[in-house]
Every structure is written in structure tokens, then in C-alpha cells.
Amino acid sequence: MKKVLKSIILSSLILFYSCGDKPVDEPFDPTFSVETPLNLPQAGGQGYTFTVEASADVSWSASASSGNDWLTLVSATGKGNGSVVFNLSANDGTSARSVQVTVTASSDRSSDPIPSQVCVVNQYGSDPVVGIDPIGEVEVPAAANAEYTIAVTSNAAWTASVAINSGATGWISVTPTTNTGTGAGEVILNILENTGDEPRVAVVTVATTIDPTVKQTLTITQRKADEKFAIFIPKYTMSANGRATMNISPYPTGAAQNISVEVFSDASGTTIGFAETLSAGDYLINSITFDANPAIIFFYQHGPTLPGCCRPGDTSAIPPLPLIPG
Asked: The CATH number of the domain where 104 resides is what?
């Protein structure tokens, strides 16, 4: 009886320890990850890849986010370690763009879900450019123009501004509805009449908003007010043309004064135009000083070429003003 009891106790101990040493199954934890992000050039290309790291028992499949038409998947499935292969179109815009490629997976060893992985593909934009027409420098009449137009071409958003270098504030401005744009467009300027006796200058700048250093400029010079009066001296030729200061005196007596004039001389004679209104009467032309040449031309020095004209004391060629309406 004692032997039977010992045998039962021994068997129970063996069974107890055998159950305690039985191995326990560990949780299923497959390897699965993707390379991200990718920063790719504006030009695009074929055969771009990103890597997929996965356990040998893990099958996977890739898909690009909806609404994307510039990334095309070429090889999108695999098992274990591998790569997703795709092509990329050129980015014609200036802004970078992004698309998400989602990779889903499943395992042969378990039906437990495997979290999806996302590769973010970024593509740089193109360098911004802008062009305008006209460009450089232009001269416009003194008359008002409410629709002076500058054509703009660009691959980006742009803004237009004007800086006045000379002349009264506001003589030129950008029409508010045309001071910004994207791509091709127009800048419309409102130019007021120049009633002064000096030209005035402004600079129009069109720059891309993404990079204001990418810009084009147009320097606009508006001519001075058109001459209202003119003196024509037939067969009298001067040795210079252009802007000048004319010193005149009322005849027979009166104080001398200077007025700004425009001189044009050719074989037919000399025309002296000016905008300043003078009182009616006879005047003596004492001298003319050219802005570009400080040499003073006295009419009496050239008198022999046209006897009886324009010498001090002679008024035969200087009838009462206004002479020739401009």
C-alpha cells in the first residue's frame, strides 16, 4: 500500500512540473515600414522608388491618393522586402506639391490587421519667371491716358507697383483691379496730363509674389506740356537744338525775363516753342542758352546771315505774341 501511495505522489509531482514548463505563444509582431518622405525635383522622371521593409510572410500593396494625376505607380505590390516603383510628371507650377502613397499589408501567419504605412512624395516647383511688354524705357505724350497697358506673362502670381521719380504725386497710378494677377495678364496705368514745362519719370515694377527679386521694370518718361506758342525765324539756322532758356525783353522798354523753350532748327529756319503765356506786345530776343550746351548764342552775332532780323533793337521778326498757336 505504501508503494502504491508513493507512486501516485510521484506521478502527481511529475505531472505538476510538466505543466508548469509548457512554453507560451508570443504575440505576433511582423516587420512592416516604408521609406518617407521623398523630396523630388521639379523636372520629374521615370523609375523613382521608395523601399518597403516587411517580414517574409507579409504581402503588401500600394495606392496613390485620389485626385492625383502626376504620380503613376508602375510596381505597386510585393511580399517581404521590396520597392514601390513610380513615374513623376514635371511640375510646371512654382509651388511644391505633395501626394500620399498608402501601403497596406497582410500576413500569412495571422489574420490580425497590420497598420498601413504612408510614403509622402514631395515635388519641388519650377523657378518663377515674369515678363512684360513693353520693357525697359518708353516715352509717352503729355496728354492723359487712362488705359496705358502693359502685357504680363508669368508662371506665377505677381504684383504691379509704380514709383514716381519726378513730378507731382499721383500723376501715374496702377488701376487697382490690375495690380495683381497669376500667369498671363495686363497692368493698366492711369496717366494724367502733364501741364508742366518739365518731363516727369516713373518706374513700373512687376514682381512675382513667391520671390519678389524676380521682377521686370519699365521706366516711363512723360513728355512736358506741349508748346502753346512758337516763334518761327525763316532761313535762320542755329548750331544746336533742344531744350534751352530764352532771355527776352519787352520792346521798346521793360525788364528782361527768362522762359523755358524748345528749339528746333533746320535748313528752313528756326522754331522756338514755349508754353508760358506772355502779355501781348513786341519782344527782343536777347540770348538763348542751351541746357545741353552752356554756350550762349546771341542773335546779333548771327545777324549778317539775315540782315535786319533779330538784332538788338530790331523787332521786324518778332511780332506780337501769341505767334503760331501750338
From this structure: 2.60.40.10
Same domain, 191 and 265: no
Q: Which residues contact 197 (CB under 8 A, 6 or more apart)?
A: 224, 225, 260, 275, 276
| pLDDT tens digits for range 198-210 | 899 999 999 999 8
pTM of the entire predicted model: 0.51
At 109-127, the pLDDT tens digits run 988 999 999 999 999 888 8
What's the rounded Cα separation, in Å, for the pair 152 and 136?
14
- Shared domain check, 142 and 68: no
Judge whether 2 and 10 are in contact, CB under 8 Å: no
Using omega within 30 degrees of 0 as the cis cutoff, is the peptide bond preceding 252 cis? yes
Cα(187)–Cα(215) distance, integer angstroms: 14
Which domain, by its residues, includes 141?
Answer: 130-222
Residues, the chain, total? 326
Q: Are 212 and 161 in contact (CB under 8 A)?
A: no
Domains in the chain, number: 3
CA angle 172-174-180, nearest 5°? 160
297 strand-pairing partners: 288
- Nearest Cα to 199, choosing from 229, 165, 174? 165
Same-domain pairing of 241 and 300? yes
